[in-house]
Amino acid sequence: MEFGTWVKNTMKKIILFSLLFQFGIASAASYECKVTRKVGPENIVSESELKKWQYSIKIHDNAKSELERCSFAPSQNMVTCDKYTVDKVEVDKFIGVKKFYYFRGQFDVQLYQDMAFVENNGRSSISFGRCKTL
Fold first, then answer.
1. Residue 98: which of 114, 85, 84 has the closest Cα?
2. Within 10 A of 33 (CB to CB), how many other CB atoms are there?
3. End-to-end CA distance of the chain, in Å?
4. Strand order in 66-73's β-sheet?
5. Fewer Cβ atoms within 10 Å of its own Cβ: the N or the C terminal residue of the chain?
6. Chain CA centroid to CA 25, Å
7. How many Cβ atoms are within 10 Å of 24's Cβ, its own excluded?
8. pTM value?
9. In this structure, are residues 109 and 5 in contact, taking their beta carbons and an 8 Å threshold?
10. For residue range 53-110, what is the model confidence (pLDDT) as tens digits?
């Protein structure tokens, strides 16, 4: 493939992806984000622990955005979620990352264009993973 053709095709894909992202994330939507990596100041949570605790984040991106932090609750023998009303939403104008802030709990969730996410829990651990539209 010629370099010029490659550049042209790549640019088309970037523009298409940008438009899809803009309409998908800019409008009201909900996302389920599975934690695939969790790192703390003194440890990295193992694959078996991630599987056991089933950590996830739900993002409800609408006029009154909400976040849900979910994990397995042994006492209830099921996954349960705590819901938080988002205090502030920001969109980075340079790379399009959408940031959801909950101030009282001192945590935030960042949703990237490729549907990757990062959760900073405000107590020195960070979770990473991928989201899908609900």
1. 114
2. 26
3. 38
4. 78-85, 66-73, 56-61, 29-39, 126-133, 116-120, 107-111, 98-102, 88-91
5. N
6. 11
7. 14
8. 0.78
9. no
10. 999 999 999 999 999 999 999 999 999 999 999 999 999 989 989 999 999 999 999 9
Q: How far apart are CA 61 and CA 37, in angstroms?
A: 23
Mean pLDDT of the chain: 87
The position carrying tokens 């819901």 is 83
106 token code pair: 């001192």
C-alpha triplet 50, 54, 57: angle, nearest 5°:
110
The Cα 88–Cα 99 span in angstroms is 8
Residues 119/131, Cβ–Cβ less than 8 Å: no
Helix (H) or strand (E) segment spanning residue 99: strand 98-102
How far is residue 52 CA from its own chain's centroid?
20
Q: Show Cβ contacts of residue 105 under 8 Å, excluding neighbours closer than 6 positions.
A: 84, 122
Total residues belonging to the chain = 134
Residue 105 to residues 16, 57, 82, 84, 114, Cα–Cα distance (Å): 37, 15, 12, 9, 26
